[in-house]
Amino acid sequence: MSAVHDPRTGDVVGHLTLLTSDGVPEIANRASVALPGWSAVAVTTRCTILRELARLIAQRPADLGARFALETGKTVAQAEAELDRAAETFAWTAEAAVRATAGRTIAAGDGLHRQVLVDPVGPVLAIVASNFPAVVLARKLGPALAMGCTVVVKAPETTPSVVREIADLAAKAGLPTDVLQVVHTDPVGSAALVARAEFRLITFTGSHRTGQLVAAGAVGHLAECVLELGGHAPAILLDDADLATAVPALVASKFSSAGQSCAAPSRFLVHERIHAEFVDRFSAAVPGLDHEPGGTMGPLHTEARRDEVHALVLDAVDRGATVITGGRRPCGPGWYYPATVLTDVPAQARVLHEEPFGPIAPVLRFTDEDQAVATANATPFGLGAFVFGGQARATALAERINAGRVSINCATGADPMSPLSGRGLSGYGYEGGLEGLAAFGRLKVLQRPV
Q1: For 132-167, what is each residue's pLDDT tens digit?
Q2: CATH 3.40.605.10 residue window(s) in the chain
Q3: What is the pLDDT of residues 82-104, one digit of tens each?
């Protein structure tokens, strides 16, 4: 059994029965057996089911957002917004899948007629992260089902309710038995799932260290992987940045879900001419904790995450960093940690090299754009980045940043229409857009004389 906790209090609010490694072969076999029937269903019918699932999520049970918030530590408003994004993702996938599965004809002029078909890749293992379980599930499950794959979802043990609820809604939408299976398991069971040859594609969102283990486990049966891993996103503010726009955008992006996002800004590189003003504005705008008057930021997801965030702050301070706000572990129940702004952070501080995955904002200064680009790219991660400044200058600088997505004068999250992929230790393969759908298909060429 595995306990489920309320991050606001630390109290146990539920228990899960975990799948053991002995039960893995049956799960994998059921996914394999269900594949021929599901892949034979017309893509239009599959997409009709996805549209209905999107509708059911949009018209979800009234208490789902509250239950989701209870397990994740999000505010109810954040939980509801994520569920709306999940519904939007399923709906977009249903509209785009017909194009992704259409194939094409090649006219080579050599007397042969060639037709390119798109087949499903096969059974899929989808490993979902705990920080945005509804959206991460939608970005994996929607494309896989639309392309005709069966799916086993290894759901996060700490936030089980929302994944189970969406699976139940999928069944109500008409999804056949065993096309989707949801399991919870420990690291041993996870490794056993990854090693099963039935799974022809493994899609994983999580830390780069676990992603490396997933990739290594898939090698034995040459399963392909889509890995959306950690990030260490720089936010660069040029000397002509509009702070009235930049500060609220970056505060919202950084501290939503208490900073537990791989795509959130985690290093703030600010031109020396506006450094002091940015620090003043930014530190004044950070959210308070939601158990305090006027506060809107919830706790960290686990006690271990809270302790690691505090360790990163202490390491930076021990090396000479200055705490502008936050930096103290609160007394009382729950796994709260305040929004923390650091300046004078030395280059050796761990927080500049390790993904903080929490509400820490180290603010560095730079004097010229080449220095900013060099600092931004001085990391093995390459998922996201942000640039604020005059449009032409900011765009030119953004093109020099080594990241899968660079936001210019904005800080919005991933959308269903656009592909997202990391570089370096941030992973490989695409989620989102037509490219994300294509990851779950395989091409077959039929050729015959004209």
Answers
A1: 999 999 999 999 999 999 999 999 999 999 999 999
A2: 2-229+426-449
A3: 999 999 999 999 999 999 998 89
- Identify the CA nearest to 323 among candidates 307, 345, 292: 345
Question: Which of 198, 228, 355, 431 is an active site residue?
Answer: 228
Catalytic residue among 149, 165, 262, 431: 262
Q: Are 64 and 162 in contact (CB under 8 A)?
A: yes
Structure pTM? 0.95
- Cα separation, 324 vs 227, in Å, equals 36
What is the architecture, at CATH level 2, of domain 233-408?
A: 3-Layer(aba) Sandwich (3.40)
Residue 414 confidence (pLDDT): 83
Q: Which residue has the tokens 């490396």?
A: 212
Q: 357-370 pLDDT, tens per residue? A: 999 999 999 999 99
> pLDDT tens digit string along 283-308?
999 999 998 999 999 999 999 999 99
**Residue 262 known to be catalytic:** yes
CATH code for the domain defined by 2-229+426-449: 3.40.605.10
pLDDT band at residue 62 using 50, 70 and 90 as cut-offs: confident
